[in-house]
Write a structure and sequence with these properties.
about 100 residues; two-stranded antiparallel sheet
């Protein structure tokens, strides 16, 4: 997946947010605009091309204050819509440099 597809969907307002993502964002004190901006300023750190019903990816992006945000996005190439599946602030005990999972 190409991050430009997710960015274009966000800019075009062609996104859906799962209830799970909405709840997780709220729990971590994030609002949708912050999550969108972190994705647009971020990078794909994991790719899940065989996920169903659409390919997914994990994006690491900064919040305005520099804190990291992880967001998982699915993308429907036929419609150009993206789905925010989940979002969270990564736990430093589980991530190395926010990009690599600890074993």
């Amino acid at each position: 997946m190409d991050i430009r597809q997710i960015i274009e969907a966000i800019r075009s307002g062609k996104i859906r947010v799962t209830d799970h993502a909405d709840e997780e964002a709220h729990d971590d004190g994030l609002v949708l605009e912050q999550v969108e901006q972190s994705a647009m300023d971020g990078e794909i750190i994991e790719d899940y091309p065989t996920e169903k019903p659409y390919p997914m990816c994990l994006i690491l992006g900064p919040q305005a204050d520099g804190r990291p945000v992880h967001s998982v996005w699915a993308y429907n190439a036929l419609t150009g819509w993206a789905v925010l599946v989940t979002v969270y602030r990564p736990d430093p005990d589980r991530w190395i440099d926010w990009r690599q999972r600890r074993s």
